[in-house]
């Protein structure tokens, strides 16, 4: 299908963040919008399963919360399970003081995307695929506009280009926006157990009788394994009466790189080495991986774009830096920030970037002149709301990245004897467990943990 010659807003990427932005723009009566994606169909895999209260609120503002909730499983608490028993680490009920959604939900990402895709279709928003963007450049006739050039040679002129095109973003690269770990941390720490991870959706024989409305973390001496029951029938090839569980864990360097799509045998080794089988002990029936519906491996890292909004470079300035006098480029979702999956924050943050961006873009279109922008002062004036949005969202992403890093560090504390001042022995993992075991007896502590995870304080 041929593409239109020009649009107000071109969203590159029809993942969850691109679709949410299209819905947010529609909500604000902005309709000259086009979403493009390089692939024929969205990915049919469950990737991000946790959706938090602040994100459900964002879905509510674009009219999707009800459908999402219907397809999801409500989660009332997170719990750590070790040989010593269960510690509830976060309780969501007390959030009722602050939100009408005092819970987390579990919903596979492809189900979320199907619901968003249908909402977009119902509203006649244009999503055209497969159309892969090759590059962007300032328009010759008016450099305040951007020519988006596709791999098949078609060109669309846009007033604003939004890069919702994932962590390897072509838009970010073309706009020459830097991308790095915010703390300059190296990405090859060999002893970090959560550096390489696997996730899988499986059917279990003898699953533990842990509450289905909990996110469970099985904690053994060397590792942790996440176990969450997915809602409904997440895969058409698996019958509705079979419960599918998400498992996720870190793979130590000594195991070598995990296979691209770990099979049931590999996943079984994990359950036996560190998972619920270790936690429940040899007297409990052995939990067996009966079937693997989907599995994947990935390496974890954190990166953030130098800015989430910039004008496209039109040349090089006298200071050797790009001269940014072209059209507005905005980054959202994984194109703007990525981090490890602990706490399930990534997709959530991206969706909230999009929903907050909708009204700001509408205001930009209303105030920005249609012709070339003559002076720097004029550009700064029309860009001010977008710049403010970008600074706020980048600050929120930094908060999440640091929270996730902290979570990762505390989860991977070594379970071995260390010496304080060379004379006092202590075991960091034991200290953590003892401290958590004590603090998690208090409702206010668990409610605070729920607040942090929910995103309500960092929407
Ligand atoms: C294996 C795996 C497991 C994950 N697990 C979790 C998890 O447990 N918890 C969690 O929170 N997150 C997880 N994530 C991350 C989560 O999936 C992302 O945060 C989320 O998909 C980001 O959405 P997005 O819309 O920003 O980008 P994406 O979902 O990456 O969508 C980008 C879209 O842009 C399109 N595109 C890219 N380049 C172009 C181009 N040049 N032209 C046109 N279209 C283009 C792509 O085809 C794609 O559809 C996981 C990711 C992976 C890969």
UniProtKB/TrEMBL annotation:
GO molecular function: FAD binding; oxidoreductase activity
Native species: Trametes cubensis
Keyword NAD: yes
Pfam families xref list: FAD_binding_3
Positions of the FAD-binding domain: 7-178, 324-371
InterPro entries per record: FAD-bd, FAD/NAD-bd_sf, PheA/TfdB_FAD_monoxygenase
Gene3D superfamilies assigned: 3.30.70.2450, FAD/NAD(P)-binding domain
Name of the protein: FAD-binding domain-containing protein
Keywords: FAD, Flavoprotein, NAD, Oxidoreductase
SUPFAM superfamilies associated with the record: FAD/NAD(P)-binding domain (SSF51905)
């Amino acid at each position: 299908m041929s593409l239109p010659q020009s649009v107000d807003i071109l969203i590159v990427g029809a993942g969850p963040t691109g679709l949410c932005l299209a819905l947010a723009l529609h909500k604000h009566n902005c309709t000259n919008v086009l979403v493009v994606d390089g692939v024929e169909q969205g990915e049919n895999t469950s990737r991000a399963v946790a959706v938090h209260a602040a994100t459900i609120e964002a879905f509510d503002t674009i009219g999707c919360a009800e459908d999402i909730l219907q397809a999801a499983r409500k989660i009332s608490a997170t719990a750590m399970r070790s040989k010593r028993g269960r510690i509830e680490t976060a309780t969501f009920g007390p959030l009722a003081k602050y939100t009408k959604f005092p819970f987390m939900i579990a919903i596979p990402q492809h189900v979320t995307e199907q619901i968003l895709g249908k909402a977009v279709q119902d509203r006649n928003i244009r999503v055209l695929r497969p159309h892969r963007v090759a590059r962007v450049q300032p328009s010759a006739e008016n450099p305040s506009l951007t020519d988006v050039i596709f791999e098949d040679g078609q060109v669309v002129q846009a007033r604003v280009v939004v890069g919702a095109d994932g962590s390897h973003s072509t838009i970010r690269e073309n706009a020459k926006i830097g991308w790095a770990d915010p703390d300059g941390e190296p990405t090859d720490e060999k002893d970090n157990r959560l550096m390489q991870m696997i996730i899988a959706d499986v059917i279990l024989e003898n699953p533990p009788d842990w509450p289905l409305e909990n996110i469970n973390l099985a904690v053994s001496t060397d590792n942790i394994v996440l176990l969450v029951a997915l809602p409904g029938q997440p895969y058409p090839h698996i019958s509705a009466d079979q419960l599918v569980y998400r498992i996720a864990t870190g793979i130590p360097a000594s195991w070598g790189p995990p296979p691209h799509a770990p099979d049931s045998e590999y996943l079984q080794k994990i359950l036996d080495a560190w998972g619920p089988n270790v936690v429940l002990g040899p007297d409990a029936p052995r939990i067996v991986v009966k079937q693997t519906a989907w599995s994947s491996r990935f390496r974890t890292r954190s990166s953030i774009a130098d800015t989430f909004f910039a004008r496209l470079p039109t040349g090089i300035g006298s200071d050797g830096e790009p001269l940014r006098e072209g059209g507005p480029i905005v980054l959202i979702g994984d194109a703007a920030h990525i981090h490890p999956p602990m706490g399930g924050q990534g997709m959530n943050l991206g969706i909230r970037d999009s929903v907050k961006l909708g009204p700001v873009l509408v205001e930009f279109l209303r105030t920005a002149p249609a012709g070339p922008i003559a002076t720097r002062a004029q550009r700064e004036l029309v860009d001010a709301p977008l710049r403010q949005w970008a600074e706020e969202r980048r600050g929120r992403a930094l908060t999440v990245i640091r929270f996730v890093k902290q979570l990762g560090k505390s989860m991977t504390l070594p379970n071995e004897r260390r010496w304080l001042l060379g004379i006092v022995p202590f075991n960091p993992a034991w200290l953590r467990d003892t401290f958590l075991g004590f603090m998690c007896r208090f409702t206010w502590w668990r409610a605070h943990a729920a607040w942090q995870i929910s995103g309500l304080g960092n929407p």
